[in-house]
Amino acid sequence: MFSNKNEFKDSFLKRLEMSYGKKFAESTKRDQYQTLGNMVREHISSNWISTNEWNRASNNKQVYYLSIEFLLGRLLGQNLLNLGIREVVLEGFADLGIDLEEIEESEADAGLGNGGLGRLAACFLDSLASLNLPGHGLGIRYKHGLFDQKIVDGYQVELPEQWLRHGNVWEVRKPDQAIEIPFWGKIEHSHEDGKLEFRHVQSENIMAVPYDMPVIGYETSTVNTLRLWNAEPAPHPPHRDVLAYKRETEAVSEFLYPDDTHDEGKILRLKQQYFLVSASLQSIVRSYLKKNDTLHEFHKHVAIHVNDTHPVLAIPELMRILLDEEHMEWEEAWNITFNTISYTNHTTLSEALEKWPLHIFKPLLPRIYMIVEELNERFCKELWNRFPGDWNRIENMAIIAHGVVKMAHLAIVGSHSVNGVAKIHSDILKNREMKLFHQIYPQKFNNKTNGITHRRWLLKANPELTNLITETIGTDWITNPHLMIELKRHIYNPLLKEEFAAVKRKRKEILADIIEKKTGISVDKHSIFDVQVKRLHAYKRQLLNVLHIMYLYNRLKEDSNFTIYPRTFIFGAKASPGYYYAKKIIKLINSLADKVNSDPKVSKMMKVIFMENYRVSLAEHIFPATDVSEQISTASKEASGTGNMKFMMNGALTMGTLDGANIEILEEVGKENIFTFGLKADEVLNYYENGGYRSSEYYHHDLRIRQVVDQLTNGFFPDTEDEFEAIKDSLLYENDQYFVLRDFASYVDAQEQLEKAYKNQDKWLEKALLNIAHSGYFSSDRTIHEYADGIWDIQPIPVIH
Ligand code: Z2T
């Protein structure tokens, strides 16, 4: 079908006419997209089947990655690339007068995630398949992914996202593998042969119907599976208003909760979590029992990974299956369970820690609650034996306390591995946030520094840079990204520098065109492209970036001798719809953009751009065009960050705090090749513990700060009245919890250093190339190898030739 251009064209035209009953000339872009998508799916079907067959037939251990989010983005282009057939399609389409890129861009993003956590899951799937590892994703088939963002009059407006509007060519519905999930009702017990038996009665059941999507490895025969569960009415609905039951059932897979690092505590969210977990575990156990008679060795053949605490009910759910369905003794069930489960923590922010009130948990999941209660009792008894009389410790560590279930405690107790996502984050878990648990389970704790798939973030997003690297060091780096380090020998080569500069220039032109098309603003393509794209959060400190731009504006207005190297400040960020402060910052960025861009003098030197609806597909245009990567979170707050790695891989230099993976970027590239500033993590944490910071002192003693803070409310931004009062209050009357004013001077200094460095283009290009050379470490292939060896103990599957 894809072996050469003409064969491809023939089958494409034949299929298009067969499926749509019209001539090619009458076909729409959508017809063409659908036809190509179906051809790709058919093309991989035999490898998909053989991967599944081999997994079924072999005793090879399987890993299942449970995640409430998978932020996949678009799939057509990546699938063509991984299959090595993109060139054939490109050429065939060219003959037919079809622009492949245009077809690819007509696909809706699969946006089933908020940000880093969901995108990490997507990168991991790509690495698992590309490394021929038997690893599969399990998630929810949300009808609506993360909301679409519109900016109206500077404010964020949320619209329901509709990725399934025109269907999804990549999914296969498997109704015969549907699974029933019980909610509500009560538990009856009886004695059978002297053993207690539990029966869940009067439950309201929901059907989980799987939709399988192929996960295609890069130039290999492995095709893994991402299974997304859809919520549908069960065959025997409860005896009540049938329409209400249908509505409530379908609501379970209707929406992705739009909260990034914030816990909502809504009953529907708990329903989603148990829906995902129960469907996944029942389906894993069912397929395991097709090739094994018992579950006694389950943990030797199955690893289940829980992505943050959202799927942590996998622990009591597996216990339930082993106890109630397999009639195992508690001790054996427990041994199998914690040896099967591993857990990743993604944040230490206290507002993100999931705590489920018993009055929600207990009635919704009565049997699961009983098991969690028993677990808690046994765990507290163990603690009592080890620390007799230490009530305080037991209260702090209990799984159930003060009327809530603490999901992180359940996760740590019920798994054999607990990992953080960057060195500093794992250290903070061990030494601070989870110190008491680390004391009793030191061997469980480990670090797995995050990574990103270079196949999307370099090969797909930046083919120009990809070609340049290959021309310089050959092709081996593509399958062994750590070999990118070989580029280091060439960074002083003037020709390479010039070619890299040309690539960057071209990518800046492309982004400038997109900006012009979307905002009507024309930016200087020779200016420094300085970018902060990520979710909007107080701890990520978009506000620090804004205050610095306001300071530059003031200098330019007041001092005619002051000049700057031209800069384009680019922002992209979605705010959680209920996050008042975050929405104010979006309005502030847009007000600043109006102020700066409409000033005849200042706008010659700088522009401020807010890019609407930041998402994976837009990110693919932004990273390659960036010169400066803003990673300026309050130290200790950003667990890892992954955007930082995507920028680095595309030859941007980092302006960052010593937080998350920025620290490991610094360790890789050395201090000459990154710009760091601000408080260190232990300084921040000591301030929190011991006090000693008064933001008002910085306001009173630094004129630059006083001026920009005053400008938030003194009419500097026309027609905003008391719009930004709350932001000013957060800085002054709430004592600036994220140390924006504390780090301001240091940030300004670092930005001056950066500007100086940029003016020395030749050196800058060397630094950028050196960053690229060292970015191979941050490929998720490295991360996945570490998970495979250190946590899951899985082996690759054979490749078909
Ligand atoms: C999320 O994206 C992250 C953490 C969360 O904690 C929740 C969400 Cl939705 C519950 C992010 C971290 O903020 C970021 O530092 C990290 O790089 C990313 O997860 C992947 O580990």
UniProtKB/TrEMBL annotation:
Keyword tags: Allosteric enzyme, Carbohydrate metabolism, Cytoplasm, Glycosyltransferase, Pyridoxal phosphate, Transferase
Cofactor requirements of the protein: pyridoxal 5'-phosphate
Catalyzed reactions per annotation: [(1->4)-alpha-D-glucosyl](n) + phosphate = [(1->4)-alpha-D-glucosyl](n-1) + alpha-D-glucose 1-phosphate
GO (cellular component) term, any one: cytoplasm
Modified residues (N6-(pyridoxal phosphate)lysine): 646
Top-level lineage group: Bacteria
EC assignment: 2.4.1.1
GO BP terms: glycogen catabolic process
Major site of localization recorded for this protein: cytoplasm
CDD domains, per database record: GT35_Glycogen_Phosphorylase
Entry's localization field: Cytoplasm
One Pfam assignment: Phosphorylase
GO molecular function: glycogen phosphorylase activity; pyridoxal phosphate binding
Family: Belongs to the glycogen phosphorylase family.
Function as written in the Swiss-Prot or TrEMBL entry: Allosteric enzyme that catalyzes the rate-limiting step in glycogen catabolism, the phosphorolytic cleavage of glycogen to produce glucose-1-phosphate, and plays a central role in maintaining cellular and organismal glucose homeostasis.
Protein name: Alpha-1,4 glucan phosphorylase
Native source species: Metabacillus idriensis
Gene: glgP
